[in-house]
Amino acid sequence: MVPGAKVVPCARSLEVFDRVKKGTVGAAVIPIENSLAGSVAEHFDLLLSRDVHVVREFRLRIVHNLIVLPGTKFRDLRQVFSHPVALDQCRDLFAKYPKLEPSPFYDTAGSVKHVVGNRLRDAAGIASRHAAEVYGGRILKAGIEDDKKNFTRFFLIRRGKPRATRLASKTSLAFSVRNLPGALFKALSVFALRDISLTKIESRPLRGRPWEYVFFVDLLRGDDEAARNALHHLGEVAELVKVLGIYPAAK
After folding, report:
1. How far is 20 from 53, CA to CA, in rounded Å?
2. Strands 213-219 and 240-247
């Protein structure tokens, strides 16, 4: 998504967003949604609370591999490390082999680094082929994800307010409404009245206001007159409206 960029690793998502907000990095790439495991809830919350915006999106086909220290046999394995989302996408493996204990780890590639670096002969990591190449692991089983149509959607984010480009064809936003009969219907009608298609809608708890919710929505429109009018209309019926990004839709 950013050819030639110097990659700066971060241990936690909060650190990623804060680095972007402070300007110590120029941009960040974050996963936002997986076609099997669903949304990355923490990242939606951080998009709402931080002064950053979405510049681009990218869909990546995810292939998970069982990676071990060279010389390790499958019969030796007792524990499998990986990110919780990756483990969740490989349920069939653990159902088929109950002796394997799934162990959450901070990162997929990091799980391979951990297994190989500590020379663990009874453990494996679940990660990409590239992780095996980088850390000197051996792929014991390839393509272990439950569903081959496994994709993750990534956002490229930068600091500041959204700035639409000529190629923008999608808008992500967040809004909240009062808990009144028909309030959500009125909010969504601003898009229906203008034939604007919604590709996603999801609710999340609104921090600091128990039992109140914020709705995250993706629209298949860029910065055109209909979209601008819809957002203006939404501002009249919603308590909160924040545009998260106006950007080119992934192909």
Report:
1. 10
2. unpaired
* CB 107, CB 85: distance < 8 Å: no
Q: How many CA atoms lie within 13 A of 162 on its CB side?
A: 22
Angle between helices 225-237 and 183-192 (to 10 degrees): 170
154 is catalytic: yes
DSSP bridge partners of 89:
none
Show Cβ contacts of residue 177 under 8 Å, excluding neighbours closer than 6 positions.
183, 184, 186, 187, 215, 237, 238, 239
Q: What is the pLDDT of residues 131-168, one digit of tens each?
A: 999 999 999 999 999 988 989 999 999 999 898 888 99
Whether 44 and 202 have beta carbons less than 8 Å apart is answered as yes
- The C-alpha atoms of residue 231 and residue 129 are separated, in whole angstroms, by 43
**For this structure, is 199 an active site residue?**
no
Name the active-site residue from 81, 152, 215, 216: 152
- Of all residues in the chain, the percent with pLDDT exceeding 90 is 86
The contacts of residue 97 (CB under 8 Å, 6+ apart) are none
Q: pTM score, two decimals?
A: 0.85
Please provide residue 149's backbone torsions phi and psi, each rounded to the nearest 5 degrees.
-90, 65
Instruction: Measure the CA angle with vertex 170, ends 48 and 242; round to 5°.
Output: 25
CA distance 118 to 148: 31
Ramachandran region of residue 107, left (φ > 0), alpha (ψ -120 to 50) or beta?
beta
Q: Which residue has the tokens 């069939």?
A: 92
Residue pair 26/219 in contact by the 8 Å Cβ criterion: no
Residue 60's closest CA among 246, 251, 216? 251
Contact 33, 225 (CB under 8 A): no
